[in-house]
Structures are given as C-alpha cells and as structure tokens.
Design brief:
TIM Barrel; 10 helices; 307 residues; two-stranded antiparallel ribbon; alpha/beta; five-stranded parallel beta sheet; disordered N terminus; 11 strands
C-alpha cells in the first residue's frame, strides 16, 4: 500500500509536467482539425455540372473582371457538337488549338479505336464502390476527378482508386469555376487538394478537370505551369441530376451511339443510370471493336510525346 501511495503523486507530477510543457509560451501545437478542408458537400455547387449543357448558360455573360477584360480572361464553357455513326465530334472553333497550346486534351488518337473512361466525383451517392468493382472485373482503368470534401469523407474509396490502378484527378477543393477566380485563389484551389492527396498517397495529381467545364486561356496557362493536364471530353450528357434518372437504358442509349476513335468519355458517378449501365457499356463497346485505353497514356498524348 505504501508503494502505491508513493507512485500516485509521482505519476501526477509527470502528467503535470507534460501539460506545462505543451502549453508553455511559444509551444507549437497541432490544430485539432477533424477535416482536411473547411468545406462540406453542402458548400459546393453541383447544380450545373457542365455549363455548356445548361439551358441558363450564356458564354457572353461570363467575363472575368478580376484583372481586365482581355480575351485571355474570357470564361469559356467546353462544348462539342456530336456526330452521327460513331464519327468524330466537333469542338468549339479554336478550342482544340487553345488546349494544345497548354497541353490540354479532350480527345485522343482518332485513328485508333480506343476509348478512355473518366468519372467526375464531386460527391458520393453510393455507386462508386460498384463502379470500381465493375472496372476491376473487366480490367479497365479510369480517371476519377475528386473534390476536397470527397477526399475528406471518402478516403477509403480514393485509396481503392489508387490501389486498383486508376488515376485520381484534381476537381479542385471547392468546385468553383476556375477562370472566375484570381490567380492566387485559383492556384490554392488546385494546389491544396494535391498537397493533401500527396500526404496520404505519396503521389501527385497530374490530371485536372475544371469544374463546370469552364476555362479561360489564363486558367489553362496557370494550371499548365503548375504541371497539370486539363482533361475535357469528347462525350458527355446531362447525367448528374439525381432527381432525374431514367434507368440504365437511358445511359446506354446516350453513350453507345456516340462512341468514336480516341473518345474521352465523361460520366458522373452520382448517376444510378451510369452505374447500372456500365457493365453493358464496357462489354458492348468491346463487341463493336473498341478497346479501353490506359488513362495514363493520356499524359504523353496531351504533351505530344512519342508522336
């Protein structure tokens, strides 16, 4: 009993010493952040995932005012005109040349029957695990573009993406339209997500998908100088409205007639239609003579390496 009585004050002295040391003037303490970013999904705007597919989008009204009104600041909404019979769609006049100038990409080699899959993952609706299962089953990889809150809440799914051979792309921390931000804010939106991703997975992001498909020459230039490849698409459809899903056949019937050589497909992972149709899309795409390419090959294609 005497030994216990002696030990108790000694233990208390040690605890007191630790407290005093940690709270001494000038002591450095780690903040108790439960989240990596001060944002939740409710803070992000996902109403118009692709501006050019929105009835309310008006390119003429989107002029960035932070610096000046020069053309390099004009906000553009990525759009393409579909072609019938699996032929190559047409991008906005001048847009492909602008992307090429800054190592951006929207389509791969149109001489080869190769398709590339990309998914936008602004938030999670419960379908991504099944999508990953399907891709693994059929030996297909994809780019998954995530936001800051997504990495906060669904690190387990992001880890699966990395470990199962997919590319995890940067969809920015807060899903803001990049060309409407000033230079510093734009860089922070992109760099902060990559910083945390690197801390967790020891990999840097290389692919960037601008939220809403909005860009300017200034945003392309800045993000290219940061080492990113801006990835747009040669096919997308209005699939992100969770309250307007129409069944797997709706997704299938949108995707299949629009397959073409070098296609970069954009699908939203919050769509139950896409999730349910994905296996049929993969199997029937192969039956039509196409194959799914390794998305990491898009790095060399975008940068014009090995041509």
């Amino acid at each position: 009993m005497k030994r216990k009585i002696v030990l108790i004050p000694f233990v208390l002295l040690i605890i007191l010493a630790v407290i005093i040391y940690n709270f001494r003037p000038g002591a450095v303490r780690k903040p108790e952040n439960k989240t990596l970013f001060e944002l939740s999904f409710s803070d992000l705007d996902f109403d118009n995932e692709i501006s050019a597919l929105s009835e309310t989008y008006s390119p003429a009204s989107y002029i960035h005012q932070a610096a000046n009104n020069s053309d390099v600041n004009r906000v553009r909404g990525w759009g393409i005109v579909r072609a019938k019979d699996n032929k190559t769609p047409q991008a906005d006049p001048g847009a492909p040349e602008l992307l090429k100038k800054y190592s951006g990409i929207y389509i791969a080699d149109t001489d080869k029957p190769i398709i590339y899959l990309t998914f936008d993952e602004g938030y999670e609706a419960g379908y991504t695990a099944g999508i990953l299962d399907c891709l693994k089953k059929h030996n297909v990889n994809a780019i998954f573009f995530i936001t800051g809150p997504y990495l906060n809440k669904h690190e387990d799914l992001v880890r699966r993406m990395v470990e199962e051979g997919h590319a995890v792309g940067n969809h920015t921390v807060g899903h803001f339209s990049l060309p409407t931000l000033d230079d510093e804010k734009m860089k922070k939106e992109v760099a902060e997500l990559d910083r945390v991703f690197y801390e967790k997975f020891k990999k840097h992001m290389v692919f960037l998908r601008p939220p809403r498909g909005e860009y300017s020459e200034r945003s392309l230039k800045i993000t290219s100088e940061m080492g990113y490849i801006n990835v747009f698409w040669s096919f997308a459809y209005k699939d992100w409205d969770r309250n307007n899903q129409k069944g797997w056949e709706h997704a299938y019937n949108n995707v299949m007639p629009n397959l073409h050589n070098g296609a970069i497909l954009l699908l939203h992972a919050v769509s139950s239609d896409n999730a349910q149709a994905l296996e049929r899309i993969i199997t029937d795409t192969r039956k039509k003579g196409y194959e799914f390419g390794n998305v990491f090959d898009l790095i060399k294609i975008a940068r014009g390496e090995g041509e």
